[in-house]
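[Q] Does anyone have a clean structure-token version of this?
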Amino acid sequence: MIEHLRNIISNLTDPENKKSISIFFIFGFLIIFIQLLALIYKINIQLQIPTVQTQAKLELINFAKEKDVEKRKIIFSNSLKKRIYLWPLEGILIDKNIQDFKKRVEEVLSDNFSKDWKTLPIHEKRFFLEKTVGNIAIDLKRRIRDNFFLPKNENEDNSFNKNKISSLTSHHYTGSSRYSWKGYEKTLLYFLNKKDDGKYILFFSSLSDVADKTNFIESTFLYVIILVLSNFLITYCNYVINIKKQIEVNKKISILYKKTEQKNSELKSLSIKLAKFLDPQIYNSIFSGEKELKIETYRKMLTVFFVDIKDFTELTENLEPEPLTKLLNEYINEMSIIANKHGGTVDKFMGDGILIFFGDPKTKGKKVDALNCILMAMEMREKISVLQKKWYNQGIPRLLKIRMGIHTGYCTVGNFGSENRLDYTIIGGTVNISSRLEALAELDQILISNATYSLVNEEINCEEKGAIDVRGIAYPVKTYLVKNKYSDKERDRIKNSFSKKTNGFTFNLNLNEVNKKEIEEYLKNIIKKLQ
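[A] Here you go.
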């Protein structure tokens, strides 16, 4: 039998059993439904049971009418379990005039409840004796005076239904009053019975107002516990079927996540290694999805920069490969750092030559791109002077010098190559002009074209040089030699200065130094004469 039950539970709790979830939910709802029905039935039965006060009245009558003291003690004990207190055991004898009633009650309380009576607050003790007992005395006196009690030979069964409340026959009387006992509001029932000798004997029953509620809670407590346990069973089954299965799934997901993280780490390491072969701007644009890896070219305004080391070929003949390689790598590394700093795209390394351009894949505008290119070239010139001394101290036989050329114009830029291999680069006449300018530059000089100069002449101090012819270019290219960057004061002077010189005419004007109104009148007079 036990083994059979185990097999049933095993089948129901099997995570692979697709029907197990629905079966357990149906089973759980069935348990709850049954328990609710049982609870409703219990409440219905409980509502049909007499209240505690009615029970207390019945117990009090049985207690008072019982002549055997031992049996009366049994009734007392049984009533105590129901929170009904019957007292006193022998009753209180009273006469028709209810004389010394308060005194007798107080004596009974002192004898039967000595500890509680002594510790009872004075105001509650006074209220009990003066109000509660006083009202009972008045009520009893009125009943005795009105001759409420019938003769003993009156047929009790004809007066009332004995099956319901046999205590209400007219040779005795029950009543009730209220009192407070250590903060609890209570009801005091009293039963007055007329003895055969014509004397009266009085009994009391005390119960708390919360007795009905307490009994109701106790009677429904078991059903509440069963309901809670049923819900616990359902929750546990849900854990076995769903949560436990989900935990296993989460463990598998965790393992898969760790493997994915490991794979991502490997891919990240690989991408970092591959980034060494790409310019940072190209690398970022590819991995961010801005550029697609396909054959694609377009025309764009770029500023192109060439740099190389003067007489490097001669150096390779006089220097061993190891120190030469170290020198070349250090040179290229330092130049690349500066190029990245200013936003240049390093296209390629050609021995000691480096091709860099500004304006793609990201641009800040042709003026800013051209200015950044020249600022980069000037910083490279400063850096190479530091490297020259370092290399000379390391045994390089002579100081190395560089030359640089810059031109701005339209180029074809993009991915060139095949479906299997692509090369991001630029081509066009602008590249040729830039290379030609670099070849014509003197040692540590930056030679730029007129197209570049026109974009930076307000920021960079340049010296005009002669025009040059470039193979494949139909027109001569005017060149300028980069000196330095203007200071703020010099930049302001240039913006406010005008000059013009031609045959028979020389004009120089600095708006920061002249009287503008005076010059305006002077120019008007000149215009009139010209007209």
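[Q] Thanks! Anything notable?
[A] The chain has a mean pLDDT of 78.
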